[in-house]
Each structure stands twice: as structure tokens, then as C-alpha cells.
Amino acid sequence: MWSVPRRQQGISLVEVLIAVVVIAVGLLAIAGTLGWVSRSGAKMRYQKIAFTLAESELAKLEADPDLPSTPTTRFINVGRPVSDLPKGAQMIIYSEPYPTPTERRLRRVRIEVRWGAPNDPLSGRIVRERLICLR
């Protein structure tokens, strides 16, 4: 009358569901990490481009310093198609006299390159400053 239960063979549905959940969580973690790595790489690329643009502009100004004797600010669009920075990126060039007791021809030049919206994770800015002597 009473039968001895046979030993269960195979896997149950619950075990399959648990395995699927564990694999899904692992895949989501991997996808999130890949997204973060991709964004970090893009931001670093933008920083390199912005740094190169700012240094290039400083080199131009040092080679041919045509800077006024009053404080000035210039805005230059440096986003696509001018460079590989996102559309709307700007270079801001600020120059002002930097008087010293012995040298009146010095100018303080500050170059800022900005890109992206304030809430954009890829947005950023680079600032470079230098003293340039007029000829």
C-alpha cells in the first residue's frame, strides 16, 4: 500500500528559474560595466581633444601675440564639424594685462574649452592659463 518514493531525477522548475535569475543579474552587471567603460572612454577622448585645442590656441597666441591692452573675451565654436567635440562646444579666450613693476607687455591668457549640457555625463571643460609677452 505504501510505496517508497522513487528518487527524483533531473532538475525542478524552481531550480531553473533561480539559475535564470542569477544569469540575468550577471548579464545586467556586465552590461552596466560596459556602458560605464564606454562613457569613460568617450569623456577621456573629449578631454584630450579639448586639451589639444587649448594648447594649439596658446601656441598660436605665443607665436603671434596680437592681444589688446584691455581685458577681452572671445568665444569660438569648436564643436562638430570643426573638431570631434560634440556640437555646441565652445572655446572661451580671455586675456588681460598682467602689469608688473618691470614689465608692462605681459598678458594673462586663459583658455577654457567647454562641451556638453550641464546634466550630461559626457560634459566637461578644460582650462589652460599662460602669461604671454607682447613684442
Describe what this molecule looks like in 3D.
- A hairpin with an 8-residue loop joins β2 (90-97) and β3.
- The radius of gyration is 29 Å and the shape is rod-shaped.
- The longest helix has 51 residues, at 13-63.
- Strands 1-2-3-4 form a 4-stranded antiparallel sheet.
- With 135 residues, the chain is of the alpha+beta class.
- The protein has one helix at 13-63, and strands at 72-77, 90-97, 106-115, 124-133.
- The mean pLDDT is 87.
- It has one domain (13-133).
- It is built from 1 helix and 4 strands.
- Helices cover 38% and strands 25% of the residues.
The major pleated sheet works out as: 4 strands, antiparallel
Rg estimate, integer Å? 29 Å
**Are there runs of 5+ residues with pLDDT below 50, and where?**
none
Secondary-structure-based class equals alpha+beta
Q: Please state the overall shape, judged from the principal axes of the Cα atoms.
A: rod-shaped
Task: Provide the β-strand percentage band.
Answer: 25-35%
How many β-strands, per DSSP? 4
What's the helix count? 1
Query: End-to-end distance, in Å?
Result: 112 Å
Strand adjacency order, main sheet: 1-2-3-4
Mean pLDDT value: 87
Order of helices and strands: HEEEE
Structural domains: how many = 1
Determine the fraction of residues in helical runs and give it as a percent range. Answer: 25-40%
Pick out its properties.
1 helix; 135 residues; alpha+beta; rod-shaped
Helices and strands in order:
Elements: H1 13-63, E1 72-77, E2 90-97, E3 106-115, E4 124-133
Antiparallel strand pairs: 1-2, 2-3, 3-4
